[in-house]
Write a structure and sequence with these properties.
seven-stranded mixed β-sheet; alpha/beta; Rossmann fold; 22% strand
Amino acid sequence: MAASAVPFPRLTLVLGGARSGKSAYAERLAESQPGTCVYLATAEAGDEEMAARIARHRARRGPRWRTVEEPLALAEALHEHARADGAVLVDCLTLWLANLMTAGLDPEIEGEGLVEACAGLAGPVVLVANEVGLGIVPDNELAREFRDAAGRLNQRVAAAAARVALLAAGLPLILKDEATA
């Protein structure tokens, strides 16, 4: 089913593993809306590999896109950039979570603030997140803490979202769709 064939909800969550196609799918969803698309990037280029990854993502997007880099203050950036005449794509919540934890911020408090912010936005938002809880149990406390925080954040955002898609091998599986219910 084409992204524009169904009503577009105010909040969509796109989940998937690494290289599952979630970012490209989320970009197509945002581009199905009229107007300018805002790409809220949470990644920071800490090394050459990440810089190359960011460059590939940026090159894939066309002239309708405006990129805003925001590694921490996501709720505030959403309030600033969400508009009725365009869509906002946040890529990705998992990197945002890592940024929060690295900065010593409480992921539970920040996650709740994000969900509250999303409830009152002026236009549609697509949030991208990694599903990191499907593998083995990490062997260290920090990695287990991150995995658990990511799972709780994804659950909280999924509960608030009208549509949730899980991507595997580039194919979306719609887990929740209140937009057409």
